[in-house]
Amino acid sequence: MAPAAPRRVGPVPVPGSVRTVADPTATGPEGPAGAFRPGSRTVAPSPLDPGASRDPHGIHRTLREEFPLTYDPLLRAWVLSRYADVATALTDSRFTHGHRPGDPPCERAHVDVDVEALRSFAERTAYVLARRLAERPQVDLVADFCHWLPAGTVAAAVGVPYRDMMRLVRGRAAGALGGECGGQIAVREKALASFLGNVLADPDQVAALRDAPAGLVGRAWTESLRRDPPVQIAVRRTSAEVPVSGGVIPAGASVALLVGSAGRDPERFREPDRFDPLRDDPGQLTYGSGFCPAVVLAGLEAEYALRALFAAMPRLRLADGFRPTWAGLITRAPRSLIVRPAG
Fold this sequence. Notes:
Radius of gyration: 22 Å
Structural class: alpha+beta
Order of helices and strands: HEEHHHEHHHHHHEEEEHHEEEE
Distance between the termini: 64 Å
Helix content: 25-40%
Largest sheet: 4 strands, mixed
């Protein structure tokens, strides 16, 4: 027996409409959930509203709690914000699938990749970059490290000279390693910046991860992808009607998936705003679970970034008075990470 579609609470919005919220104290022919009164109309906030770049989490919370399905005229798309719905849309065949490294089509495309060679390239590049920064009194890790490590790793892997890597790696050289995944360099930069920001912002995490085994660093990496994913909004299109929380998305509709909101859904994660590598309910939606060079490189770069930075700068810490600030709407990461290499 097929499962029943989710019960709609009030009318499902149509493009350009105002979302109507039921008044639970009112009465009507359908009972409290179907009863409305004048003045009960409210407008769902948009992920593109002013201020969302600095702090999208309040908007995401309102959408999850009050508007799990709404049409956003700014995005020109239906919006999903709950973990269960976003996770479904990233894997369900009724949604067309954009390129997400690690998904099955991507996994099938990469069958001849030398992981140990990638490990060597990531390790060597991280240590070279870290040593070049160690003698400076102050460093911006976003501009001077995160911006270079993903590109430098690919450059080393395809034999591009260091001096030419930024010019070539973002083009043909990147494609030589990962095909469509070569375009993930910018995403890996932002993911790495968020990872370092999450670790360095908490002295306890610095102490725990300074000499941690790869497994613990990997858990911290997954936790950073959950809490602060580099891609906040992914867009898909439906090929059929799809029941979701709050109603039914029509066929042929554009759908905006709020990956950043899903990662902080309290229905899926306890204390979702807290960075906790040891949580017993881990998960992330940035990457699929299959094999892909971009996914492998991202994890290796995170691991060796920490090892190289702590090896070259044993007293590394954030500069006095500095706290990482995340910004961005479609992609999101700290714009700077000002540190003192010598403590």
